[in-house]
Structure formats: structure tokens, C-alpha cells
Write a structure and sequence with these properties.
With 197 residues, the protein is α+β, with helices and mostly antiparallel strands. The chain contains 6 helices and 5 strands. A 5-stranded mixed beta sheet has the order 1-2-5-4-3. Helix 5 runs antiparallel to helix 6.
Length: 197
Amino acid sequence: MDSIYGEHLPELEKAMQYLVDEINIVRERMKQDDGMDPVEHLIYRIKSDESMREKCNRKGLPETEESALQIIHDAVGVRVVCAFIKDVYAIRDHLVNLEHCEVVEEKDYIKHAKPNGYRSYHLILKIGGVVYAEIQLRTISQDTWAALEHHIHYKKIKTKNDDLIIAELKRCADELASTDLSMQTIKDMMMGSLKET
């Protein structure tokens, strides 16, 4: 079976590498300014043929290049997990101002969390006027919550406690968000003290 991406895989790889390089550029600049790496980890991938075909089917789309490259916008996926909230926004600012990128969609689930408590910053960028990429930016706490919620969500059986489970997930997310704010405050105080000396 031919690739759902046709002959466009090299373009996808080039666009993905461009984003990774740009993230590493801003990461290095921030490391020089603050003395610490703002990125805990960086994950990137091109969605597999099988996964893209499954997504086309789930969305009722034909399994074609057009569906994979023009209608679905996450053939290229990048997740940046940062130590602090301000780092998320600093990297976001760098990405949206890139010369070869156009912002197609932007959702701030950090300031406006989903009802279940999910927090993350989502960007869809069009790179070079051709390739779409989805970028998720989040803190370590937000990433931990999302990973644990994913395990619970996909393994859970319908129970009489569903409402309680949803409420507890939201409570946990809110507690982690509060911790993120506290940790940012501590970092800001430390950086302020360093500048005074």
C-alpha cells in the first residue's frame, strides 16, 4: 500500500526539523539569559500511515493525500514540555512570529482549561505555505496530568462513580495548576534576587 502522504514525506520531515531547530534556538537563548533550560523534554513525530488512515476513517474522510495533508492538520506533531508557565508562552511567542509560519489555529487551554481540567497550549501552524503542524506546549504538571488522565480514560469501564471520577480529575488538575503558579512565583523571586546582586 502506498503512503497516504504520497511523495510529501520529505516535506513533512523538513517542516518538522525546522520547528525543532527553531525551538532549540529559543531554548538556547533562554538558557543563556536565565542559566537554565526551559524545556524539560521535546517530542516530535510524523503521524504513521496507519494512525493517519485511522483518523481519516474516524472523521468520515477518504484515505487520501488531501485528507492527510490539507484537512487534518496534525501530520506533523510537536510537544514541548516546559518547567514553568512563562516558558510555555515565551516559546509560543517565538513560534508564532516565525517568518515561514502562519498561525492557523490557537487554543489556550492554560488560561481557559477544558471542563475536565485539561491544560495545554495548542497551535496549528502552516509552514512554508504547505505543511500543517500541531504544536502542544505545556508544563511538567500539565503533561503529567494529561498522561495519567489518558491512562484512566482509555482503561475505564462505565461505573456509577463517573461523576465523582470526573470531579476528582478536575480537582487534581486545579491543584497542579495552583502548584505551577506557585513554582513560577518562586522562580520569579529567585531571578529577581539574582539580578539585584
